[in-house]
Write a structure and sequence with these properties.
Layout lengths: L14 E10 L2 E10 L7 E6 L5 E7 L6 E6 L4 E8 L2 E7 L11 H12 L2
Antiparallel strand pairs: 1-2, 2-3, 3-4, 4-5, 5-6, 6-7
């Protein structure tokens, strides 16, 4: 997936911090970290390879109250759903990359809700 300069949800310009160290299976890689801080009711963090401009990892909020997130790791081909249950973060590991349909996240929200219900 190619890197983004604008938020694929709200089209605001993403804030960029370069040379951010991210761990991928105990290996660290310097990335460009892009975040959306101007959009309403969502948060988005993208880590991309500085040299190739390919997205390595995305973290997206799927609830307006920031209690449900999905983290997609394109390097390890895995996804993690992070949700609050009884005041604690409860991770659900998925051994595949979940597809994101920007800007419409409704299909992803429904899939994540189903995975949470059956976990």
């Amino acid at each position: 997936m190619d890197d983004f300069k604008e938020c694929p949800i709200c089209n605001n310009k993403l804030r960029t911090v370069n040379n951010v160290s991210v761990s991928f299976d105990k290996k660290h890689k310097l990335t460009s970290e892009r975040t959306c801080s101007k959009g309403m009711n969502h948060s988005l963090m993208i880590h991309s390879d500085i040299e190739t401009n390919q997205v390595l990892k995305i973290k997206i909020s799927l609830a307006a109250n920031y209690t449900k997130f999905i983290e997609i790791n394109y390097v390890l081909n895995k996804s993690i759903i992070l949700c609050m249950k009884d005041g604690k973060i409860s991770p659900i590991n998925i051994d595949k990359v979940l597809e994101v349909d920007f800007p419409d996240l409704e299909k992803l929200r429904k899939k994540v809700d189903m995975l949470i219900a059956f976990s």
